[in-house]
Amino acid sequence: MQKFWDNTDAAVARMGESPVPTLPVPTMPQVFPAALKIGNVRIAPATVLAPMAGITDTVFRRFIKNLGGCGLIMTEFTSADGVLRDLRVRGRYLHFYEDEHPISAQLFGSSPSVLADAARLVEDLGFDLVDLNLGCPAKKVVKCNGGSGLLRDLPLIRQIFEAVRAAVKIPFTVKFRAGWNDDEIVCVELAHIAESCGLGAVALHARTREQGYSGNARWEWIASVKQAVKIPVIGNGDIRSPEDACAIVAQTGCDAVMIGRMAPANPWIFRQIAQYVSKGSLGLHGAEPRHHTASLYDQPTESDRYQMIRTYFQMLLEEEMPGAEGKMKQFASWFTHGVPGGAALRKAIYEAKSGAEILGRVEEFFEAKLPASAPAIST
Questions:
Q1: What is the tens place of the pLDDT at every residue in 292-330?
Q2: How far is residue 133's CA from residue 105's CA, in Å, rounded to a whole number?
Q3: S-S: 175 plus which of 9, 203, 318, 379, CB 3.0-4.6 Å?
Q4: In terms of Cα–Cα distance, which of 335, 344, 327, 341 is closest to 310?
Q5: β-strands 103-108, 73-74 pairing
Q6: CA atoms within 13 A on the CB side of 210
Q7: pLDDT at 275 exceeding the cut of 80
Q8: How far apart are alpha carbons 213 and 262 in whole angstroms?
Q9: What integer pLDDT is reported at residue 373 of this predicted model?
Q10: Average pLDDT over residues 233-256
Q11: Percent of the chain scored above 70 by pLDDT?
Q12: How high is the pLDDT of residue 1?
């Protein structure tokens, strides 16, 4: 299936094919789902922030929520065994605020009884949903039979589904990959098992464990899962723009979209999708060429980017999170991408010794570039 970010002569040439004309923008924003229900939880808009290790902590989740357009946020993927054994792990990974609802806690592990106990804990803590990770490709997780390591043991997955479903009343979902490799594609069978065990929804990252994060997501696998089950299906993989979000819905029929790595690179993407869908539904576009679609959603200005970086860094410092300075430096490479002179700012941030100094370097950099009368930007 064609994705708009890869519809270029260079991309086609890499695949050894002849260049093709630029595809029209999909005429589907007007049918992009406004909301979905998973059990008794309504998610609106039908967009989900993917769970990402080291990224989707409470600060980043609230930061994305405040920017607008995201219907469901999820915790970092969290060890079921760890949260049961160690209060510090529980406090770090399962801490959230009331303004984060609806929120899902994602667990990983391989023991049905441990995962069931951890799911009860999640429910007791007030989460709206609990999710099982069957997608993480990291070797240290897979070697413990967690994440995508379980994709080779469908009977055990069924036992886990049954144990967790019996343990909690809140909706139970699963995020998984298509299979271990191209020769072991299990996504349709796994979705059938999930539905038969009473799960409320499935989310498919349309890559294999062997792919990791390389290559292209195979959206046709999402379409196959959607055709196979009646529960909601959330599509994930290679959604890098509002156009892609609408294209994956149009091409697969999925009930919602989940965005992972693009969120820290472009935190506005959820709001942009909402704008694109809204304007599309008013008939403001049709078969326009791709390069005209940017007018259907806001493009961040340099002032916007300054306000965004400053807001996120201030939130980190106010939360007094351990390792906040390291996280500020980690996010600097994403947040400053495309900023003229961004390399100098990244260097200044990496050389700073404290959070306050990092924030000061950001303010100095942008205030030297922006007019003194630049209006405050709402984030």
A1: 555 789 888 888 989 999 999 999 999 988 889 999 998
A2: 10
A3: 203
A4: 335
A5: parallel
A6: 8
A7: yes
A8: 12
A9: 44
A10: 95
A11: 85
A12: 55
Residue with tokens 């290559």: 215
What's the whole-number average pLDDT of the chain? 86
Beta bridge partners of 103: 73
Neighbours of 8 (CB within 10 A): 14
Confidence grade of residue 334 (pLDDT, cut at 50, 70, 90): confident
Q: What is the C-alpha to C-alpha distance for residues 74 and 249, in angstroms, rounded to an integer?
A: 21
Closest-CA residue to 321 (of 54, 126, 122) = 54
- For residue 234, the SS3 value is strand
Distance CA 137, CA 260 (A): 15
The whole-angstrom separation of Cα 258 and Cα 203 is 8
CA distances from 361 to 317, 365, 368, 375 (A): 15, 6, 11, 20
Least confident of 57-66, 118-127, 369-378: 369-378
Active site annotation includes 246: no
- Helix ranges (H only) for the chain are 9-14, 58-67, 80-85, 87-93, 112-125, 139-142, 154-167, 187-196, 219-228, 242-252, 262-265, 269-281, 302-319, 324-335, 342-351, 355-369
Range 213-225 average pLDDT: 93
Residues in the chain: 379
- Residue 250 CB partners (closer than 8 Å, separation 6+): 26, 28, 31
For 114-142, what is the mean pLDDT? 91
CB atoms within 10 A of CB 152: 15
CA distance 118 to 49: 22
What pLDDT was estimated at residue 273? 96
Out of 136, 187, 246, 254, the active site residue is 136
**What mean pLDDT do residues 87-108 have?**
95
Which residue's entry shows tokens 């078969």? 287
Transcribe 95-155 into DSSP letters: ---GGG-SEEEEEE-S-HHHHHHHHHHHHHHT-SEEEEEE----HHHHTTT-GGGGGG-HH
82-120 as b/e, with b when 16 or more CB fall inside 10 Å? Answer: bbbeeeeebebbbebeeebebbbbbbbbbbbebbbbbbb
pLDDT in the model for residue 12: 31
